[in-house]
Batch of 2 targets.
Target 1
Amino acid sequence: MIRRIAGVAASALVLALPLPGAAMAQEGQDDPAEDMPCVFGPRLPREAIIVNGSGLLSRPAGDAVQGGAILTDVDPGLGARVENRLRDEAGLVQFRRSDGRSAHPTSQGITLRGLGGNASSRALVTLDGIPQADPFGGWVAWSAYDAVNLGGILISRGGGSGADGPGALAGTIGLHSEMTDGAAASLAYGSRDSLDASASLGTDVGDGGQVTVDARYGRGDGFIPVMTGQRGAVDRAAPYEQGGVGIRLRFDAGDDSQIEASVRGFSDRRDRGTDFSASRVDGVDASVRFLHKPWGETQWLALAYVQLRDLESGFASVAAGRNSVAPALFQRVPATGLGARVELRPGIAAENPLRIGADWRRTTGRTEEDFFFSAGVPGRHRIAGGSSDTVGAFAEWTSGDADDGFLWTLSGRVDRWWLGDGYRLERNIAGPVITDLGFAARQGWERSGRAGVRWSVHDVALRAAAYRGWRLPTLNELYRPFRVGAEVTMANEMLKPERLWGGEVGIDWDRGDTKLSATLFANHLTNAIANVTLAPNLNQRQNLDAIDSKGIEVSAEQRIGLATLRATYTFTDAEVDASGGAATLDGRRPAQIAKHGGSVSVRSNGSGPFGGFATLRYVGKQNEDDLGLLELGDALTLDAGLSWRLAEAISIEARGENLFDELVPAAISAAGIVERATPRTLWVGARLSF
């Protein structure tokens, strides 16, 4: 599949994209970025079209009562990655500091506001309104989005609105695709023999139709994950090879109506830097939606989608001196996600203040594992899995537009969930069955909602919101035990849904070229799922009593001539509330959550021949484990790039990641072996557009 993807990308190499900060609008249209400042609590006209393919094509005004950010400078190609762009937003925490070129695919969950590190995402990630978490494990395949031509990312901090579906405990990260008009592509060469190629081709079809094809291919020899001084004879560079192709189609279906369809596939190959540690992820997504959106009249949407994932991964056992390595486990995880959604916005006095709708999501999956290797041959086999279904209905009323003097919003959602019969079977490959367990089906009801207000006077807006959200345990958390080195973690089929109560108050100041925002938040997450230490080298997934998290988020933005300076900072004070078997965790800080995080960036926004950016990013110290015995140090990194437009359609660019070559610890084992994130990486390339 990689070779096929590479062939498509190479044959489509008619190259490039706008310079950083260049206008995103098509000729004859307003630049949408003019009404989309990258600050918390953005002001956005209700009628503003964000990007093609983004649901009902307008951002709900009700989200203005909560902190958030709108990112329009999402530059594909030349080594840039969506997940690393999100790291610039302080408070967004990915389970590992390493990205999708070196992290294990199952470790890439994301959360906000200090709700605890977890490979299963506590934030809801969507692409054009479609949930993106892996159906089995809840992690996110970030490399899949590098092949999507994104027009923007909407970040809503804090859950509760319900319109996006369940699972948004910490907030929602909405990726929004954009139809290409013409041809664009890029080609770059980077450190460690890395290659990055992307291409998009879009054209009109018939009367009012559009079609876009996007492709991306990247590869590299990789770096040695284990830090210098701890390496042994078994450690080597960890190569990667990734690619994806997608096609999107839109055409008119009568007055004020459209049909949109998309199909995309991706393939991801990685290595963890030793023998027997290669992984493979293949995925295919397809969706179709019908939109009826007359201005000032009743609007409605109908959506259906399918999500297919297939993961294979090897795990290695490395000797204490790191001079020998043997296979420890081989895993395959096929999983499927299905879903549908309908939404209605009645026309009321030439407005659409009410949103009502319903949605359904089903996930099925299993893990198939070979382990207990001897002389390279597995001795035992395990299969475990199940299914889950969620059906929900929601309603939301918002009084006006985000730029009105006074706005209020009230929403509620009710969900019915089912966990199907789960199972776990273990047997000796050459012998009898060891374990044959079936887990009874369960079901229940959950409620969520949000209430908020925003009051604006001249350049200042005050806002407040309270919300409740929930998340169903993933099939991986419920049914799959696992082992890392000597550490064994047992599954727990009786895990309860996580539930969150939260609130925030904030202030926004917007005076043209100057924008400031601050938000105080407090969250109480009950039944928080965590790996709890029961005995030396023995853990189990359990529901903690709670995680309490409070803090402050600050952002500032200043436009200075042809450049924009932006800074973000988050302070998070999080603490575990635990009793019973988890009492040793009481009062401790959750794993993978730093107290301090922030970034400062400058980015060109002019239309001249030269452009560039620089981002200084800081992440504070954080614990690797639940007991706080293993600490990951803080890190300060610098990314920067320069571009030069040689002609209307041609530009060249140089950029670098982690230019200080800072050691960024991403993980630490019980034996003290430190895994690092991406070292200094340099790229040079060209972009063409027609």
Target 2
Amino acid sequence: MPSKRPAPQPSEAARRGGPGEPDRRQSVPPRNDPEQPWRAEGVPERRPERRARGFGGGWKPGRNTYLFWLLLAVVFGLSYASMHITGKQERVSVPYTAFTQQVSAGNVKDVYTKGYQIQGKLKNAQQVPGQADTKKTYTSFETLRPAFADDKIYTEMVRKGVQVEAKPVSEDRGLLANLLLSLLPTLLFVGLWIGVMVWLQRRMSGGGGGGIMGGFGRSPKPVQPDEKRATFADVAGIDEVEAELSEIVDFLKDPGKYRRMGARVPRGVLLTGSPGTGKTLLARAVAGEADVPFYSAAASEFIEMVVGVGAARVRELFTEARKTAPSIIFIDEIDTIGRARGSGASMGGHDEREQTLNQILTEMDGFSGSEGVVVIAATNRPDILDPALMRPGRFDRQVAVAPPDLDGRVAILRVHTREVPLAGDSDITSVAKMTPGMTGAELANLVNEAALLAVKREKGAVDMADFQSALEKVQLGTRRSLVMPFEERRRTSYHESGHGLLGMLQPGADPVRKITIVPHGRALGVTVSTPESDRYAYDERYLRGRIIGALGGMAAEELVFGVITTGSESDLEQVTKIARGMVGRWGMSPKVGPLSILPADGMDPMGQYAAQGTLDAVDLEARRIVDECYAEALETLRANRDKLDSLARVLLEHETLDEEAAYAAAGIERVTVPVETTKFPSPTQH
């Protein structure tokens, strides 16, 4: 495994990035309808249900939004009509003298008077008095007759032929128009408030919450089948899991054969395994192989702020699956809602999660064998699931999806390189041997990185150099252009040479594959050691060798320079983890005995209790093991000081050494020990 020398700063070691973009047949089915919290593929087309006409049923964002805008347009239209048609036309207030001048000139057409107020219209437009610079004219006017005026204006108007009206020349707005204009700001505010609330409701409910007053039940639209669905041909490296799921495929294809024998298919199958092992792809492959509808949803998509939404979505999902039975429901990351109830993590405002879990339990328990709906769930934390979820009748079967072995990695690489042009020197088997422990997603990412490097290097095909560079980038991190002082580079070369030399000298240790002092990621140097074949169990001797090899960098620095630097940070983390596991989990300490005291990785440290004296004994035994291994590392390097100096000198000169060059620089013959393997038959083989 890689042994990295981090940069001299008290920070955590960088974690390896996740897998890259998966193959398009492995991706989750698309969500065609934004109102449904699941995705579907292979669903047969059905005639859409007729909806009741009218405006009842509460506010529906998709149906009533246009009504709001229509109402708003009507209000604006009426306001415009009241202002420009029946409303007050534009009248200009003019002086009384200007009015009398127009009367004398015979330019007044008609007038209306009420008290001292006079309104009227001109025959020909005239310029507004006092606004000669604007060139503004008018025909409608209004003016006030002074009380002291003593003229014969009425006689003059009759003589000039002016028509005196008994009603206003231009009427003001009516009561309805005034009412609409006064209510318009209120209507706009109410409409804006409704729009904002609908938008917030849709955001909270994942695109289909039903609106302000409507319910949460929705009838999802049917989804057309995909052109190409995933099958077992797209799944490689996990043949034993395929055998476990093959009978489910057979049941979905021919359920009558099982009913005649009185047998029923498992109602639920729980896929467990590390991230990236292909659990989602397996579920899709089962549905594609059986050619049945497939409904996929992440457990987190059922949880909302509003209590009851998740339970309603679960009911609708199962109802929809029953309509298209036989079908498959796939719930990813079910531990999000399937955690054990009553635990400390579930206290304090998690009623929505528990109601959703209760609804899933009810739906699965209510299945009958004739419905033909199979629930497949995936998780990498099966230890925290609720016992009621795991009982027979719900998830009857658990299938562990482990990282692939050598043959499985070869098969997976062949699947992911089907559309990648390979050069003549590309050896898929050699790549598989260099990637022990990698999952299917990580192998897909490796192939993608190699293809990207080939494009960057302007090649027509991917060769072994691209695969090796991609593996180096994935395992070690991106190479950095860091200028280091000579003394720092020399110390780093001895540090990495200490790791490498102890890996070469320890019997049964993993062979050293590469040593480099070129900075990668946050590490100043890296030593890569991988086993000849996949290992599934480790004995005490091997684990001690791992500790000795990890302490080789610190031991070399102390032996040569007489100092200890911060470059051993990640090494000490690895050493502490292994030593504590040997004592507290695997029973490799005679003082503590065969007890499991410390929790497994990723588990709650408070979930397992031990007396303080027992925990102190674990710490003392772990310290004893590390001290013994460090003393052995110092003694071994002291006895082979010439080999250490030779390896460090060559490494300082060339910066990177592969397996052959590293063993040659240390003057050690590389001995390959044949590993005997036994192929156990799968549970379905006899």
